[in-house]
Amino acid sequence: MLSRVANSIYWLGRYLERAENYARFIDVNFNLMQDLPMDMKEQWHPLIAATGDLVLYEKKYSGYDRNQVLFFLGFDSENPNSMISTITNARENARVIRENLNKETWEKANELYYMLQNGLEKKVWKKEDPRPFFEKVKNQILLIYGIADSSVARIEGWYFRQLGQYLERADKTSRILDVKYHILLPSDQEVGTPLDFLHWMALLKSVTAFNTYRRLYGNIDSASVVEFLVLNKYFPRSIYFCLKEAEKCLHNISGNMGVGYINSAEKAMGELRSKLEFAEVGEIINFGLHEYLDTLQLKINHISNQVDANFFTIKDNQIYQTQNQVQN
């Protein structure tokens, strides 16, 4: 497979997942605000802080007005991580590799692009309750995933898209969990109170995990939620699950069906996956949740850089071939 084609497929997966997760970030705050006491301010600053775009936001805007934040996250073309930017990039990547996609995937990606353009024209971020629009965007992306799951052959292109999707999802799950760190409670005495419970419940709902969590753990407490979203081996949005699946994708791309690793991307992935596999939630909490998640994000970024170096960086006009061999 040409490295440029693999690169476009990989980033198609990442951009779609990023857009869906930004819709989830927004849902975190709206879910939370429905139940917060009336005297508590809307907490939009933590949302920007958790996305990692705080510096860019503060260069452009003063204050954390709801409409400003929603526009920045959803429709600001100067924010490279906004939903409109990522969906535009996803559509462009899909257009470049259109011959490698089935007709339905291209059509739904195109519809998604125009859905965002329509939302921009109608200024949906100014509506009293813009959640139905963001829910529609999420569902459209899930529809694209469903089409791919049922119609795409499990060959290299499939694994590159899945690799991008799972790396992005692992990063964004860590950031959604980090929202809880950034949403500062009025005092330490409120840990374990109904207000604290509302924060964790909103977070679980934002990743469609509330019912699954309650079946597995019952009562909501911070340690169990952290264990569920970071270390659970079966929930498809836990960080460990995402890295385990991403590692499988790497092995299928490289043709490494044995043990160990045959490139630096597999090495970095294996090291992080194995660390999470044998971690305990008590260790994470003792280390500091925010610090642990920050370290995880840096390591996921390192893995992404290694994927780029091994598969997408073209040197001397060489192209990436199957089984990770490079030929003239």
Summarize the structure in words.
The chain is 70% helix and 1% strand. It has one domain (3-327). The protein starts with a helix and ends with a strand. The chain has 328 residues and is mainly α.
Unreliable segments (pLDDT under 50, ≥5 consecutive)?
A: 316-328
Number of strands: 2
The sequence of SSEs as H and E is HHHHHHHHHHHHHHHEE
Number of domains: 1
* Biggest sheet overview: 2 strands, antiparallel
Gap from first CA to last CA: 13 Å
Features:
1% strand, single chain, mainly alpha, disordered C terminus, globular
List the helices and strands and how they pair.
Elements: H1 3-35, H2 45-51, H3 54-60, H4 66-74, H5 83-96, H6 103-122, H7 131-151, H8 156-182, H9 194-206, H10 210-217, H11 222-231, H12 239-254, H13 264-277, H14 281-287, H15 289-312, E1 319-320, E2 326-327
Antiparallel strand pairs: 1-2
Helix pairs in contact: 1-5, 1-7, 1-8, 1-9, 2-8, 5-6, 6-7, 8-9, 8-12, 8-15, 11-14, 12-13, 13-15
